[in-house]
Each structure stands twice: as structure tokens, then as C-alpha cells.
Amino acid sequence: MSQQSIVLVGCPDSGKSNYVGRLWAALQAGKGLLQRAGMPNDITYVETLCEHLLQGAFVARTDRNQARQDFCVPLRTEGAEPTELIVPDFTGEIWQDAVKKSELSVDWQEAIENAHGAMLFVRVHSNLNVQPLDWVTARDLLTNVGNGEQETEIPTQVVLCELLELMQARLARRPDGSAPRLSVVVSAWDRLDATRRSQGPMEYLIREFPLFGGALSDVDNLDIKIYGVSIVGGDLSDESFRLDFQTKALADCGWVVHERDGGWHQEPDVTAPVAWAIGGALS
Ligand SMILES: Nc1nc2c(ncn2[C@@H]2O[C@H](COP(=O)(O)OP(=O)(O)O)[C@@H](O)[C@H]2O)c(=O)[nH]1
Ligand SMILES: [Mg+2]
């Protein structure tokens, strides 16, 4: 069976693991762009993630010691042979440490180099988001990052810029020679008010993480698409939302926002950012 892997990248608490749980629920329901052709190799891992959501709670942040989990599932393709989707989810601390110390473990160097695309996560209202220093200080920090001298926490936008640069340097071109694809996922999109949501995820990134927003616009060797994602369509810590959510099927909750025909559109298929990152590789 051929393999397609999509590597998940992002700071701790950026929504990676919860997304994987919701992705599995979508694959089980079978209504999205991605269709599975069998069972995951480690069903316990994804079932545990789903179980939390079904009980009305987000999955707690991944234990730092549990460095890597892979979600592997066979996907149906237009061709005769199914392909195996591999989604390696590394704990966010690994990405952050890598930026601080400029150290790349061989394991994830290989995961990026062998990937067929990537997803970069950043979460709305994460308590772990380190707010920007002013623009000039952040830019200076970016030029010095990785020399091990940082005593203060590195602002999230500086980490995001470094991760973006890493994807530019390491992701391989697609089999047809085109630029590798990166889905940028702004997770917990439901936590913004209606006005901010209507402006779309790119506007959010530019306002909250201006350095990163600028860097995204400058990239010319990656094909980038920005998504706002809400895995259940609201916040499970809000009791009235949670009670309502528990009357519905998990696969019917949640949505993705993305740009189409010059406007931002909301649709229910949460597999869309993965399907796009894999792209024509599936057909
Ligand atoms: N409101 C809301 N919160 C989310 C969503 N996805 C993730 N979160 C929150 O983000 C936290 C961290 O998510 P997690 O998947 O563990 O992040 P990871 O460390 O990147 O794997 C969760 O505990 C939730 O509180 C979402 O779609 N909506
Ligand atoms: Mg995690």
C-alpha cells in the first residue's frame, strides 16, 4: 500500500490532538472529502481522543513525555489501491524546543522530509500564546533565535515564523514537481465573535501575529491555504453549548472556514484541510 503523510506542526495547546480525534469521527461517518478504506492501526489512540469529545470535553493537552503519536488509516482513492494516511502528531514542546535551541531530532526531520504536506496549527485564545513584543523587538529576536540565549519566552509569532521557515526548507516538492502544500489551521475558531469571524482567519493572523501574517504573504515556495477550524462548532466549557452538543452526533458538529471565490465560506467537512494538503496525490 502506498503512503501519504501529513505532518502536524504547532506550539503546545494549539489544537492538534483534538483535531485528530475529530478527523477520525469524520472518517467514521464517511461524509467528507476523505474516505477511509479500513481501520486505523492504533484504534485505542484515536478512540480515546473521540471518547473525550463524545463525553463533552476537549482532550487535555498532550503529555510532554508522550513525544509522538501517529494516526495511520487507509484511505480510499480513485485508483485501485488504497493509500495509507499517516498523521504524525508530535507534542508541541518538541517544536518549541527545536526553535529555541535550533535542534531537530532525526525522527521529526525525517517525518517532515517524508511528508506529502503539512498542517501548521495556531489557536485562538490559547493561554499559552505568548503575545507579541513590539514588531521591531520581535523581528530582532527572530534573527537571533536558535542561539540558545533566550531567557524570556519566545513570542508565539516568532515560533510560528520559525516553523514556517522550517517547512519551507524541509518539505519536499510534490511528485508532479509543484510546491509542497501547507494548511495553516487557526483552531478554536468558534472562540471569536461573529464580527471577527466574518473577517476570516487571514485577517485574524495579521492582527494577532503580524510578523507571521507578513511572513505568510511572502512565501513563494509553498502552496499555502488558511483555514479556521472549530472541531465541534463551539466551546465545550460553555455549559449550554455542551448540553446542546450532547444531543447531536459528533460528526454533525463542527465546521471549517476557508477562502473561495474571494470570500470566506463555512462548510461542515472538517477533513478539508487534510484533503487539500494531500491534494491530487489521492486521485
Ligand atoms: N473552543 C474550542 N477549543 C478548542 C478547539 N480545539 C482545541 N481546543 C482547545 O485547545 C486545547 C488544546 O488542544 P490540543 O488538541 O490538546 O492541543 P495540542 O497540544 O496542539 O495537541 C483543548 O484542550 C481545547 O481547550 C475547538 O475547536 N474549539
Ligand atoms: Mg497534542
Please name the defining characteristics of this protein.
single chain, 283 residues, alpha/beta, Rossmann fold, 8-stranded mixed beta sheet, 11 helices, 8 strands, 37% helix, globular, binds guanosine-5'-diphosphate, binds magnesium ion
Question: What kind of sheet is the major sheet?
Answer: 8 strands, mixed
Distance between the termini: 15 Å
Question: Might you state the CATH topology name?
Answer: Rossmann fold
Count of helical regions: 11
User: How would you write the strand order of the largest sheet?
Assistant: 2-3-1-4-5-6-7-8
CA-atom Rg in angstroms:
18 Å
Description:
The protein has 283 residues and is an alpha/beta fold. The protein has a single domain (2-98, 108-127, 182-206, 225-282), classed as Rossmann fold, CATH 3.40.50. Helices cover 37% and strands 20% of the residues. It contains eleven helices and eight strands. The protein has helices spanning 16-29, 43-54, 92-101, 106-113, 135-144, 156-170, 194-199, 201-208, 210-218, 239-245, 272-278; strands spanning 2-10, 68-75, 83-90, 117-123, 181-187, 223-230, 255-260, 263-267. The chain has an eight-stranded mixed beta sheet with strand order 2-3-1-4-5-6-7-8, with helices on both faces. A hairpin with a 7-residue loop joins strand 2 and strand 3 (83-90). Helix 5 packs across helix 6 (156-170), helix 6 runs parallel beside helix 9 and helix 8 (201-208) crosses helix 9 (210-218). The protein is globular, with a radius of gyration of 18 Å. Bound molecules: guanosine-5'-diphosphate and magnesium ion. The site of guanosine-5'-diphosphate has 23 residues, from helix 1 and strand 4. Residues 16-17, 62, 89, 91 line the site of magnesium ion (MG).
